[in-house]
Amino acid sequence: MNSILNIYKPSGISSAKILNQLKRVIEEKKIGHTGTLDPLAEGVLPVFTGKMTKLIPFFNVTDKSYFVTAKLGFSSPTYDSEGEVSPVKMPSNSPQLITQTLKSFIGTIDQIPPMYSAISVQGKRLYEYAREGIVMERKARRITIYDITNICIHFPYVSFHVHCSKGTYIRSLVHDLGTSLQSDAIITKLIRTSAGSFFTLQNTIFLDQVKKIKENRILFHSVNEIFPSWIHLSLESKEQEINLKNGQPLFFKKQNIHCQLLENKAYHAYILGINKQLYAIGFLAFSPDNHFVFTPKKVCI
After folding, report:
1. 3-state SS class at 244
2. Most confident listed range (3-12, 111-120, 166-175, 191-200)
3. Considering only CA atoms, which of 64, 46, 66 is closest in space to residue 55?
4. Which is catalytic among the residues 38, 80, 176, 184?
5. Spatial contact of 171 and 40, defined as CB atoms under 8 Å apart
């Protein structure tokens, strides 16, 4: 089954277990997602099955948003309440100072990932070293915190909403907040509220809904929903379909492009085939011979 699902991952289960359960329900071996959520975390988990897994790289570069609850004055090797939690020196309880410190992370910053992460160092995952009590040197990663809003402080708890780039570790953000307040902090609750513009809490579905949806054959999200601003193209001949399967560029007559396009710009575009199945995504640009050329980046047929 070739489908795109926006699953609501509950807290207390790993992203891998969610995929294993889905495999059994939809009877599809080829399945993947666009970013692991820690067992503690819940919320948006975009899942791609069958040939749609080819689209994962396009969604892996997207920004994400989270609702976070942190607890100041406590430490954990995992930077969250799942690890062994220990009390440390309490920071200042000044709401102004806490808010100011949290807001200071907005912008492009270098962030050191936590030891309990899946990053590979010398052929081994960091969390494997951590479980052996080994602390490895980690290179800082350049990430962007676009905004931090809805800050609410009930000391020692601090909750907020953060919009950030791919690769941001919210556990590290909370740990760095505690460190900047000359203390420490851990995550007690984490909800991913969005991944890109389409995958939001509003259009998630729960695991127990998937079987019913499958039976009604409405498992596939509408491509128009996922790519609302992209150019929609339709194949004009069987020859085009064969060329597309071989990954070759396709040429479209200017008069057959039913929207106003600039001739000096490349546009994201997708092609639908029979039964409105997604055939390919790529770029559409003007060609000197007065045609538009579609260059496929991922072919799904």
Report:
1. helix
2. 166-175
3. 46
4. 38
5. no
